[in-house]
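S.,

Sequence below, as promised.
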Amino acid sequence: MNPFSFVGQLPASKSILNRLIIAKSFFPHLNIINGSQCDDVQLMERGLESLFKGQPVECGHAGTVLRFLVFRAARVVGEHELVGSQRLFDRPQEELLSSVRQLGCEVQIEGCRLFIKSQGWRLMGDGLHIRSHRSSQFVSGVLLNSWELTQPLHISLGKDVVSQGYLEMTLSLLRQLGMQVDLHGGEITIKSHQKVSVNEFAAECDMSSAFALAAIAAYDGHFILQNYPASSLQPDAIFVDLLVQMGAEVERTDHQIKVKSCEKLSVVYFNIDRAPDLFPVLAVLCSLAVGESFLYGGNQLAYKESNRLQKIAELLFKMGVNFEVINTSIKVNG
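The prediction came back faster than expected:
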């Protein structure tokens, strides 16, 4: 079999695109440069079309689509319905319902359907209190829909914000779009009457996809990504540092990254909470390293589209890999 080889570009990040699509729904003049045909992006675009037509919003399996569009629907006066898969509604939604109710809306879940009755956001207290110990998307959903508010909004995050890198991505993106948003400790403040101040925004390439290809090259081959951003908003961009730690040959320039295989891959110790979307590929890559790798901090892995820790354990077992799952962590012997 020939070594793996890739030279080219990759589609835009769905995480960034879905955040930009929400902003564009408030300010249609915003031109989004670069795109993706992935399911989550198409669901977000079609979901907004359905929302403004008064039709049920299909969310599929996508937690991001449901959580972002629930808050978008709550800004629109009327009654709205969002539908999705059984797995989607089996995932934790208590924080979502609590947040929407604090905004003065009626909301309930019946089977695989979520119903909202809204008069627009009407804060029921001095601010929102959002628990983020299972997902930061609830906070991101509020922030992304906080354009043109008539009064400042204060959000208390509570303790143990998981996937904090994605919340930081949301904050950075909103600031680049022109939103004045302040973060002090566990408190976020958004000033009133915020508007998008740019006419266009280029969405960078998807780092999760880049890692999948770069990981193959790190084992056997080479990978050249030509639209690599000089500075990335995505927490998954840390994959470059991980590959360096594991011994791969990595070369970076402002708009390109090259990865070549090495004689042997080294073990890695990594807190997966920093970038949970890297976990599946990283766990398999660790099975090809020499020694015992340790991936820890995966408290939220069970709440993704599937139970990622369980599914990767099943995969490693089928591969004949020696591993051990310890609560929300995994040891992988390459």
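The chain has a mean pLDDT of 92.

Coffee later?
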